[in-house]
Specification:
Helix content is 58%, strand content 0%. It is mostly helical. The radius of gyration is 22 Å and the shape is elongated.
Length: 114
C-alpha cells in the first residue's frame, strides 16, 4: 500500500476519477479561510502550469479558479467582467505591448546636485 499526500484543492469530479482507477481518495471539505487559501494556491499552481507549458488551454483552468475566487468574494461573473472593463478603461490594456525598461528621476537628480 502506497499513500501519496496531496493536500490541495481539486475539481469536483477528481475523486471519482481516482476511484475509477482503483485508488481510494481520502477527501474533506474546505470552508472559509482555508478554502480561500487553497483557491489562491490553486491559482498559483494553474498559472505555473500555463507558464511552463505555454498551452493556451491552461488559461481556461486559470479562469476557472478566478471565477471561484470571485464567487468567494460574492462577485458575479458579470460583475467581474464589468470590473475588468472598468480597469481597462481607467488603466488601459496591453494592446500596445509596451515594455517599461526603467525610469530616470531627473527632478531627484537635480535636487541632489544643488
Amino acid at each position: 500500500m502506497t499513500i501519496t499526500l496531496h493536500n490541495k484543492l481539486v475539481r469536483d469530479e477528481i475523486p471519482q476519477i481516482i476511484r475509477d482507477y482503483w485508488d481510494c481518495p481520502i477527501t474533506r471539505i474546505a470552508f472559509g479561510e482555508e478554502f480561500f487559501e487553497k483557491l489562491k494556491a490553486k491559482l498559483g499552481e494553474e498559472t505555473t502550469k500555463y507558464l511552463d507549458s505555454d498551452n493556451p488551454e491552461k488559461l481556461a483552468d486559470i479562469l476557472e479558479v478566478i471565477y471561484a475566487l470571485a464567487e468567494h468574494h460574492n462577485i458575479s461573473i458579470d460583475k467581474l467582467k464589468k470590473m475588468r472593463l472598468s480597469e481597462q478603461a481607467s488603466r488601459w490594456s496591453f494592446k500596445r505591448r509596451i515594455i517599461l525598461e526603467h525610469t530616470i528621476n531627473a527632478v531627484q537628480d537635480t535636487l541632489e546636485n544643488q
